[in-house]
Amino acid sequence: MSTLEIKDLHVSIDTEQGTKEILKGVSLTIRTGETHAIMGPNGSGKSTLASTIAGHPRYNVTSGTITLDGEDVLAMSVDERARAGLFLAMQYPVEVPGVSMTNFLRTAKTAIDGEAPKLRTWTKDVKAAMAQLRIDADFTQRNVNEGFSGGEKKRVEILQLELFKPKFAILDETDSGLDVDALKVVSEGVNRAHAEGKMGTLLITHYTRILRYIKPEFVHVFVDGQVVEEGGPELADRLEEEGYDRYATGAGAATIAAASAAAQA
Amino acid sequence: MTDITTEKARIGAPSAKPFINGFTEEGESLSPLNARESKAPLAGEAVKRHSHGGGVGIPDSSRAGRLTSYKLADFKPLTGMEEDWRFTPLKRLRGLHTEVLNGTAPSVSVTAPDSVTVETVGREDRRIGSAAIPEDRVSANAWENFTEATVITVPAEVQVDGEVSVLLTGQGTAASAQHVVIVAERFSKSVVVLDHQGTAVVAENVEILVEDGAQLTVISLQEWNDDAVHASSQQVKLGRDAKFKHIVVSLGGDLVRVTPSARFTAPGAEVELFGLYFADAGQHLEQRLFVDHAVANCKSNVLYKGALQGRNAHTVWVGDVLIRKEAEGTDTYEANRNLVLTDGARADSVPNLEIETGLIAGAGHASATGRFDDQHLFYLMARGIPEEVARRLVVRGFLNEIIQQIKVPAIEERLTAAVERELAATNH
Lengths: 265, 428
Known about the structure:
CATH superfamily of chain A: P-loop containing nucleotide triphosphate hydrolases
Number of domains of chain A: 1
Strand order of the largest sheet of chain A: 6-9-10-3-11-12
CATH topology of chain A: Rossmann fold
CATH class of chain A: Alpha Beta
Oligomer: heterodimer
Mean pLDDT of chain B: 87
Strand content of chain A: 25-35%
Mean pLDDT of chain A: 91
Strand order of the largest sheet of chain B: 3-6-8-10-12-14-16-18-20
Number of helices of chain A: 8
Largest sheet of chain B: 9 strands, mixed
Distance between the termini of chain B: 44 Å
Low-confidence stretches of chain A: none
Shape of chain A: globular
Helix content of chain A: 25-40%
Distance between the termini of chain A: 49 Å
Largest sheet of chain A: 6 strands, mixed
Order of helices and strands of chain B: HEEHHEEHEEEEEEEEEEEEEEEEHHH
Helix content of chain B: 10-25%
Shape of chain B: globular
Order of helices and strands of chain A: EEEHEEHEEHHEHEHEEEHH
Low-confidence stretches of chain B: 1-41, 43-59
Structural class of chain B: alpha/beta
Structural class of chain A: alpha/beta
Number of helices of chain B: 7
């Protein structure tokens, strides 16, 4: 049983206009076996949370903590976080020219496990996982993500999820840009990994569509860098019907209030 | 206005006749030797005619206007302002451009199958000058000073199993001159490896003749010691339907400058020019190539890739491709990619494409110099791969595109190991 705990997290980025705060005090606890969905409109900070957990250098944590079973995640480098058991399925997987998938997968698996996988079982595992995700066998010869379609890139992210067996998977809008078939294939992959019972999942999404295939126990609604509402799966159903409009008004009102307060000061 | 004139010159606009025969604005471009040897495209006519085109107030604006001569005296002393020397730190040439090159040349040891003829010949051998003519002062200096040449001949219709291995071992820092001639007779097929090692200060001319229907690969490896200085002009002349593949790999040496030139003399021929270089702190690795499409229906493909790391690591790549008026149906592409791994390194990259006819199959050029990409690094590290391993994966992948062109397993392995060593170097 593992616990990923995020406490009062504040994150900012440097822009040309100066420092901009994106996460304004986020707290969240995920345990092994749980699936949490984070939903929210564009620009609400969902992806920032994902990238911050993974350690992307663009995001500065100004206060708050992230711990994995009590260990300080923020003190770890990007690769240490991955080896500690955190996996980020990226929204925009990067093409890495010159590095073959085979080489990449084996190198990463070796780094994460601390020892090289046994070649025979490993090759078999990769093949089987690829077949289940309906990825062509010749992808192993190609360079990482190079020339892959959007859907192929997402499937390859889930392939890694299944092969690397992390403690916590953070799926950053893995559903965006997928057609229904691909969405099903990808969701099945996540469910398979989850069903092994050793993983907690943080599913970040803009749409409720993927929640038809992956069932979260907890739903958190993100608006303007904060969790504005939390609940069970029923909250997702409500969002599907009503959208994010009712939060937008609130956030807008808050912004206006803050602005007028600033003007008076 | 300058731009317009330059453009005109590049497209090969009709130009004025010279006031004095043999003279252009650039000076005397026809030595007596040049005039005697005056047969296109090695020298003479082509040079003469086009040099006027290049001389519209802009010396060297067309590659066709470049002076070529077997006589050192025809080349003015270098100032460093010349177009083809502007990136080279002349002080570090250690006299290759100023001294009499009478030092001991690197020793030559050739391992070749019996079917291949290897000879050591004097200056008067008829094959000297059959494929090359110096295009710069250092090359002319080497030409004037070499005492003997190694001639490797692959006889007609012979397909050589395995490669011809030429080991050139430096004999110290006295400035010297080297001359190698490779002749691939008609319909032969072979691979020749020039393996430069040790410490040398040497100017070298490599003449390569690929006769009708022959297929030749020449791999030039520069794995010199850190103090070596090497200027190598490697010129190839291709017959009808000849195929030539050239792979230049520069890893070691203080200053290495390789200038390959490919000249087509009959239709149907193809050249592939590949290069790989990896510059460490303080190293200057320069490559300037020239593809002269002087006849119709020939193909050329150029790809050079370089990595740089450390303070004052400097690489230069200049790719001149000239499609002359006669060269209809030409298909050409050239590209250079550089990967800058650390601060303090500098990569210069200049692709020049001159097109004098519109009736071509294709012509393209590309150049990109990028830093080691933080996005690549993040992606790999987010999968648990430590930074150093990630960096190595990417560079190895980047350079592997060239290494895999070599197709001699022993050399591929050796170079892969050499690249690993470069990456492990602690100067970044």
